[in-house]
């Protein structure tokens, strides 16, 4: 009802697109049922559905995932396959599923300064990533490293903001541990709390080494 009201109010911006990320910024993922419901809502309300796939590999290789590449093509109007967060030097691969949006798209790229002079270098990266299941295997490795780290931190007594099924995890670090924790790793302060503790975001990647992870856990456990 609220969508329809906005559509008929000339003083408001008329919405046209729903933008979601999979995984989300919290490391959670959309199920097939959830994505289907969102897509159906968009159809009813004449909206486009765009899926941000900067970390799409992490979503598709999560042990909780039930979406496939084919599902994404059917349940979105457009999505992109992240490259820079999954081993590529630069660039992302845009997939336009809705046929009407494909018309003259390369002209729009040129008009807005998005047509690369040496675009074949970007294409070559994805050509390589899509061979021998490399794209998904790199993402799966990142997820496995994150799950190992998450389990270890919980066993050391660090509570989690929530249990993440992908390569972004959110331990809660007490005030007295923050300085030492920060000296051991790079992280983002996700939420500073009144008691001095903080939720931090740790992200593993395709390049995270098992030995590095175990050394971090070992040093951290010695301090605990």
What features would you describe in this structure?
The protein has 224 residues and is of the alpha/beta class. The protein is built from ten helices and eight strands. The protein has helices spanning 2-7, 32-44, 56-60, 69-75, 99-102, 105-111, 120-129, 134-155, 175-184, 210-223, and strands at residues 17-21, 48-52, 78-82, 92-96, 168-169, 172-173, 188-192, 198-203. The strands form two sheets. Strands 1-2-3-4 form a four-stranded mixed β-sheet. Helix 8 (134-155) runs parallel beside helix 10 (210-223). The protein is globular, with a radius of gyration of 21 Å. The mean pLDDT is 94.
Task: State the gist of this model.
This protein is α/β, with parallel strands linked by helices and 224 residues long.
Radius of gyration: 21 Å
Indicate the proportion of strand residues. Answer: 15-25%
Please state the overall shape, judged from the principal axes of the Cα atoms.
globular
- Biggest sheet strand order reads 1-2-3-4
* Major sheet details: 4 strands, mixed
Number of E-type strands: 8
Nearest-integer average pLDDT? 94
Helix content range: 40-55%
Poorly predicted runs of 5 or more residues: none
Distance between the termini: 53 Å
* Number of separate helices: 10
Q: What are the secondary-structure elements, in order, as H or E?
A: HEHEHHEEHHHHEEHEEH
What structural class results from the helix and strand content? alpha/beta
